[in-house]
Amino acid sequence: MHQKGDTVVLHQEGRAVMGAVRGERYGAGVQKEYLVAAGGRDAWIPAETLEAYRPRPIYSRFQRHDLVKVYRGAGLVKARIVHVSATDYLVHYQGHSVDDDEWVPHYRVLEDKDFEIDPIRRRRPESDLHVQQLQIENKRLKDELAKTQALLAAAQKESAWVDECSQLQQKCLLVSDHCKKAVERVHGVLEEKQKVIDSWNCVVCLENQINCALVPCGHTFCLGCAVQLDKCPICRQTSVSPLPIFRP
């Protein structure tokens, strides 16, 4: 979006040319065009082919809006600075149409003694440069802040995920410990059961359950083994007869 009086850059025959916007209109197909003065002639140029002229701060004697005198022909003519470039000023002559605005070299422009240039405005290029540097630094800091916030958010998500994994691991360890203890208890019960079963087996044949005791020693055996024993195999006492016994 350009305005009347803006300096723009257009490309002609492979080179960039500076020009000044004189007007605007909408051409065929509702295409916006600007009337641009460049190279000593005016032409309607499509908006998309123009670039805004963004010069770096220029340290010159005069700045925009300063009133000056310009050598024109054989005399001096009062004018106002419209734009400043490294080597030229775009000036508007007092009492003339904007169509007469032209770029003139710095050496053709003199100070207008009737107009005192504000010392603060003389320092404006330096201030503009400082502002531009601050804007660049501000943008850089904003970009860095955005990156830092993104990294922080990612780190927080990762931290939450790690905490959740740690909690699940602790729960798994707790369940595993409970399962291990339960298995140990089952094994203990089975072992006790086996001991009880084994305690009722005959110590001679190790197969049949005991169902009688020898008299007089009282050691127990199965009836099949007891009737064949003359002496108790445990205490070596002579047995009289087996006495049947019953488990509770």
UniProtKB/TrEMBL annotation:
Keywords: Coiled coil, Metal-binding, Zinc, Zinc-finger. It comes from Achlya hypogyna (Oomycete). This is RING-type domain-containing protein. Residues 131-158 form a coiled coil. InterPro entries: Chromo-like_dom_sf, RING-FYVE_E3_ubiquitin-ligase, Znf_RING, Znf_RING/FYVE/PHD, Znf_RING_CS. GO terms for molecular function: zinc ion binding. Gene3D superfamilies: 2.30.30.140, Zinc/RING finger domain, C3HC4 (zinc finger). Transmembrane segments: none annotated. SUPFAM superfamilies: Chromo domain-like, RING/U-box. The keyword Ligase does not apply. Pfam families: zf-C3HC4_3 (PF13920). The keyword Cytoplasm does not apply. Residues 202-236 form the RING-type domain.
